[in-house]
Amino acid sequence: MSALIAAPVLLPAFAATLSLLFRRRRRWIGAGVSIGATALLLAIDLVLLGQAATGEIGIYALGDWPAPFGIVLVLDRLAAMMLVLTAALALAVSIHATLTSLDRRGWHFHPLFQFQLLGLNGAFLTGDLFNLFVFFEVLLIASYGLLLHGQGARRLTAGVQYVIVNLVGSTLFLIALGLLYGVTGTLNMADMAVRASALPIGDQGLFRAGGLLLTAVFALKAALLPLHLWLPRAYSGTAPAVAALFAIMTKVGAYAIIRTGPLIFAGAAGRYMIPAALGTMILGFAGFLAARHLRVMTAFGLIGSTAILLVAVAVFQERAMAAALYYLPHTTLAAAFLFLVTDLLIRWRGTEGDAIVVTPGYRGQQVLAALFFAGGIALAGLPPLSGFIGKLLILQATLSSSWWPAIWAAILITSLVAVIGFARAGSTLFWKSSGDAPPSPGTSGARALPLKEAAPAGFLLALMVLLTVAAGPVTAYMEAASHQIFDVADYARAVLPPASGVGS
Amino acid sequence: MSIEFLVATAIGALTAGGIYLCLRARTFPVVLGLAMLSYAINLFLFAMGRLVVGKPPIYAKGVAVYTDPLPQALVLTAIVISFGMTALALVLALRTFLETGTDQVDGTPDPDLLDRENRT
Question: A467-487: per-residue pLDDT in tens?
């Protein structure tokens, strides 16, 4: 029982309010508060990760109400890993947005950014399904604001569609919650897991329907096949730096499936999810190849790589889940990294935006080419970066599934497609040149290259390198996390007080 | 006619209307559809605690039948969230219409508005 578990939810709330005060004058204070709070959040999350790594499940009961009656925050290995990933990504994005003055294109960037973090952290920590819904809404409301940040007609159209899709998703979420509550009489995840195993036969059909509906809502957030249509336009319509933060949003859906699937529904959704994820993978990388703008291309790459993650999740076995958990931070970082590189391309090239066309040479082209090359290696999953290890682990672990030939074929073919897509885009963007030499440093009009703008992207790249170098300890942690996810009895023992147990 | 039948019919009618309106091409009917869907959900959540008439809402010793108070708290939360969301969607739809000159959800030019401009 440690109050520190509540800090990742409380800190962004205070930081958001504080940075709201400085939105007109002394805006640098608002930015400083936001970045400082995010850095502090990363430090706190690392401490929590250390706590969770011991294998103990930390509980914080809000208002000191015991578990089935009050809301609890639960910190296990999975939650701690997601928290650290979110904070690291948020730190890079907030620094990037401040360096590139994205936060000055509207009034409320930093408060919205912090509220987004509040929603994300809450969703990862909560142990209550209705509370999960509330945190989903918090992160969605903030994401509407961030998506529209900077405005413009194209962004508004994409924003309307994004809002409508997510409102319908929230409606479905509530229907599923209503069904599950009506059948089990509880909203606490651990309590529901205990009661689900003792349901009378007549109620099991309703319970399964509620569970599948809930999984469908999470699949909408994770952009799984029939529900993926909102993502490319929303992510390519917004500012690339915001899209980089949104790389974690599809993982919230994946996280919710990982959390509730084994715990409450015993992996019942797996047989629908595997074909859907395979289809998403193919469609994602087909869109990847067809895209004519780098942002659209990265958005489709995000859909495809999230589908690879979901295939491994949908097997619902301990080893496959461990592989998926290793791949999860990698795919988030890789997609976010590419979005940041896209933003640098738009800023440094000066013409043509992010269209994949040949332009005259410009300063910083070599730096960008190197970064893009690294991003391509990461997202396509080639050695030496961590995507290769992640894909290898997933291929190995899915061998036990009866779907393994389809999974192997889809992952290997889409990897090849990704390499072709990157090679084509990269050679158009960086190799071909329309003849003009880049302006030399002394000539007028050439300004000093703002290399520091590439620092946040470099930070994300360094994290991916770290993930590769430390692959041994990381996979050991993920295997332990996966074991913890499937150990329902241990989770229920930790969350529910021993005396009251099952009965209310 | 039982109260369960009435409530179930109301939820069904609201959901059907909401889904129909959500599938329309213009933003205003879609927002109305979302509002209707959220009404249906509120009723649905309320009914999930089972429909009980004339019983105390709080569990106490010696009370055999009581109304489940939790769904009412859930409905309150859901009402607040859906109200805020509907307002946001409405403002966003209006802003998009003013900025792009069309209130089609997919952003294609509005045929009616084009006709009117051609005539004047």
Answer: 999 989 999 999 999 999 998
B105 and chain A in contact, CB less than 8 A: yes
Write down the ipTM of this complex. 0.89
Q: Measure CB to CB from residue B27 to each of A160, A167, A177 and give the nearest one.
A: A160
Residue A503 lies in a domain: no
Query: What is the domain extent for residue A60?
Result: 3-437+450-488
Domain contains A495: no
Confirm whether A443 is domain-assigned: no
Sign of the CA dihedral A77, A82, A83, A89? positive
Domain containing residue B96? 3-119
Would you list the DSSP string of B52-113?
A: --S--SS--TT--S---SHHHHHHHHHHHHHHHHHHHHHHHHHHHHHHHS--BTT-PPPHHH
Tell me: pLDDT of A491 over 50.
yes
Residue A258 domain-assigned (yes or no): yes
The domain total for chain A is: 1
Q: How far is A183 from chain B (nearest CA, A)?
A: 8
pLDDT, chain B, mean: 85
Look at residue B114 in the predicted model and tell me its pLDDT: 65
3-state helix, strand, coil in chain A (%, to 5): 75, 5, 20
Q: How many domains does chain B have?
A: 1
